[in-house]
Amino acid sequence: MWLLLGLLPLGLLTSSSVQLSEDAVSDEVRERVGTTAAVSRVVVDQQMLSLKQLVSAFAQRPEIAKVVTSSAGGVRAGRPPSPDVETAMGRYRDELRQLRAGVSGVIVIDPEGYTIGAAPPGGLPQDFTATDWYQAVLVRNQAYVSQAYTPPRGRIRAVAVAAPVPKAGGIGIAGILVVVYSLEAIQDFTYEAARAQGIRLLITDQAGVLVADYGRKLVGLTSLREDPRVDAALAGRRWSTDYMGYDGPVLSASEPIPGIGWTVTAEVPTAEAMASAGRLRTSLLTVAALVALMLLAGLALQIHTTRDRRRAQRALAVYADALASARDEAVSASKAKSEFLAKVSHEIRTPINGMLGMNSLLLRTRLDDEQRHYVSTAQDSAQNLLRLLDDFLDLSTIEAGHLEVSTLPFDLPRFCDELIAPLAPHAYRQGLWLTLDLADDVPQHVAGDPVRLRQVLSNLIGNALKFTFQGGVRLEVGLERKISDVRAVLRFTVTDTGVGVGADDSEQVFDIFRRVDSPITRRTGGSGLGLAIGRQLTELMGGSIGLDSVEGVGSRFWVTVPLDVITWAPPEVEALRDLRALVVDGTPDDRVLTARILAGAGLRTDEAAVAPGALAALRRAAEEGNPYDLAVIDLDMNAVAADEDEGSLADAVLSDPLFAATGVIVLIAPGRTRHEWPSAPNGSDRSVQSVTRPASRRRLLAAVENALLTARNSPVAREFAAAPAAPATILVAEDDEVSRQVARLVLEKAGHRVEVAGDGPQAVRMVLAGDYDLVFMDCQLPVMDGLAATERLRREEGPPRRTPVIAMTAAASPADRARCLAAGMDDHLPKPVDWQDVLARIPTWIKHEEARPEAEAEEDLAGIDAEAEEDVAGIDGLTPEELAEIAQAFAATVPAVRRDLADAVASGDLPKAAALAHRLAGTCATVGESHAARLCRRVEDLARDGEGGPGLTGATSELDTELDAVTARLGESPD
């Protein structure tokens, strides 16, 4: 009985060990086969995609379009290609062979399928209209890899890579360039994989025809469509399971190649794969037999002794401790995985930022078209990699539970404008419209996490643009539910007219690493993380996200987020009430939206869709003595609807004296303006305002006020016009020489009297001893900073007197503004300073003789935009001599600060490094170098967070490179 009980654990242990060993070997082989299939997919995909890019770039050459257009008529008339065309074909083939081994022929045809020329002649069938590549290029207007075929004089299969040859104007197809490419390199790759790793590879084209095999044995066009592994890959699915092959059972894995629609299948015979497991089984049984003999001998001698029982109990305790330790290690490993991913992502960002910076510098140099294409491709790839790292970092942070949402005040309309603006050029380049529609009842200022909300919405709009090929995308912002006067739920809806998503896939798109499988998603790619991260971020903000979609019609993603409400929508502008406006736009959605915004501000609006109707309405109103106060016109609209050569409608309105009382605003599509900028005739003081599509309420109403101010006889001009501001005596307290020079030149040019102070105590003495109307105070003054100087000034001035003090600082966060107001300052200007805005606000500041109430300060704080630091300094309008003074001051002061910064970084004095970087940020922002200012703030942030070492050193080095470029630009002679 005791002997049987002793042998039973050994038998179970041996059996489980054998099973575990077989499972481990099987899993290892399966993983190796799957990895080989995945790597092979990437290799083949990269080879064919790079070939498509090469052929596409080659087809863009103007000389090829010239050959097509000059020879097409003769080909249709039956004349053979001219000797010049045949020579050009041979040259093209030789050049392509040098760029890519495996190119065996080149042929050029016109859009109707007539052959323009070929090298060598007769390399492809002559009836090209029936080929798959001919139809694909005409429909898609992009490069295409054909199905495989076997050339007449060879065993190695080949494909035809076809690309459209654009017309000279860039619109339409002049012809098609076809390159015959031998698949010998791919065949060699499969052979080497079988010889070196013992893994067989089978590669098929999009029709399931075998293009490469592991043994170089199959000839002709062999179809593998009946193979379920190939069928699954052709359908876009991965295959990884056992399969009964031609030579017996195999462990197999197949993968789709999304870029070209091919498949790759890897397999290993099961007998070969499990041979090592059989040998291991024999060894384990031998060892088990020896252990059994030893156990029998031991049990026979000691089974009845207490010592053996205690020894067994101790062994079980040790085993239990080992299990507990293993469990703890597994938990720690899972946590370490997330932390490791976060740290690695941070470390990789530094070299990628270096790549992006160097590529940006390279793009500014003189490059030919081919070099610029290569550099731009590298830049786009680095940007994509950076976005992928950001996704991984966000995912790991969320999984580790370290991501926290913040609550910051921000201006909702401005947030939406800045969300849409970077995406608009991309949309209009694709021929799509992009519209922003804010409901009238949404709040003006809210509190939430604008950074995370921007991340979610940017991903949704970017996805909509990626999968939309005609029509456009609309972002709608509305009030979902008003909880109270200080709390509301907003609904953000992104609607597109793209490919749509099926009902079965609507929930899967939000899963991690899951994408709806279709030829379009395989072509556009993506990490499959964006929507999953968007859902988790939305839930962290207390909201929800969802999708309503119809496949082939379009999609509508919606996000609801609860936000604190600081101020609701602003009231109507009284100065605009009952003024007349005419909206002229050929796009119905944009026209209706623009008219609705103007009507909501109090204007009486009419609409026109074509130029003749608009001119007739304007002329009729002017002749009746009641002219329109404002005309909002699409800049791309011709003055005569049917005449493409006619000037713009905006020019016609500005040049007609009958419309002199009408202010003009033009709507501009980014990157697609057909007409020159409109201007009034010589001697007229009329000007034109512009709004870049998509139009928004905030920007449109600002342009309306400016346009009405410049309309000479407009009734509203008198209401908006203000008496010119009297010259003021202003003190500029600033220790940076460049910032002082800019402030002094701009203010003196506007007619003000300016004095300067270099430190805090001097500024206080000058204000107390003088009679200044206004003080601009830098917050980082030496000896005594601007905050302390203002507090001392308020104490010593006494209640009857209060000199307005305006803070100037590169610290632009809401908390920084709050500190300035708490110290007694009257307003806060983030660097770079918009001096045109400052000049307009000087009369308002001078009138403020008393400090603003705390409630008013908090209301202004709500309007601060977290990204105000990205604005550009306003130093336009200065003479070349004044700009030379600023450049000289920059060159005189910056080198010493740079040396001190480098010494502080080298010695590890991080507080000093942060202060010097802050000072440099203000200097760079003052001269309009926003990129250099951002790099300075990055160095400042790293130093303040105590992150020294390679990260800070690399950021400082990147800043030095940019400052050298800034110094060189400022030193150039003005035109």
TrEMBL record:
* Residues spanning the membrane: 284-304
Where are the 4-aspartylphosphate modifications? D634, D778
What residue stretches are annotated with the HPt domain? 879-975
Q: Where in the cell is it found?
A: Cell membrane
* InterPro entries from the UniProt entry: CheY-like_superfamily, dCache_1, HATPase_C_sf, HATPase_dom, His_kinase_dom, HisK_dim/P_dom, HisK_dim/P_sf, HPT_dom_sf
According to the UniProt record, list the residues that bear Phosphohistidine: H918
> What GO terms are given for molecular function?
ATP binding; phosphorelay sensor kinase activity
Keywords of this entry: ATP-binding, Cell membrane, Kinase, Membrane, Nucleotide-binding, Phosphoprotein, Signal, Transferase, Transmembrane, Transmembrane helix, Two-component regulatory system
Keyword 4Fe-4S on entry: no
User: Membrane topology for this entry?
Assistant: Multi-pass membrane protein
Domain named Response regulatory is located at 580-708, 729-846
Chief subcellular location: membrane
EC number(s) on file: 2.7.13.3
Q: Which GO terms describe its cellular component?
A: plasma membrane
Stretches assigned to the Histidine kinase domain: 343-565
Q: What reaction does this catalyse?
A: ATP + protein L-histidine = ADP + protein N-phospho-L-histidine
Signal sequence segment: 1-20
Q: Which Pfam families match?
A: dCache_1, HATPase_c, HisKA, Hpt, Response_reg
Ranges for region Disordered: 943-975
Tell me its family. Answer: In the N-terminal section; belongs to the phytochrome family.
Subunit annotation: At low DSF concentrations, interacts with RpfF.
Q: What is this protein called?
A: Circadian input-output histidine kinase CikA
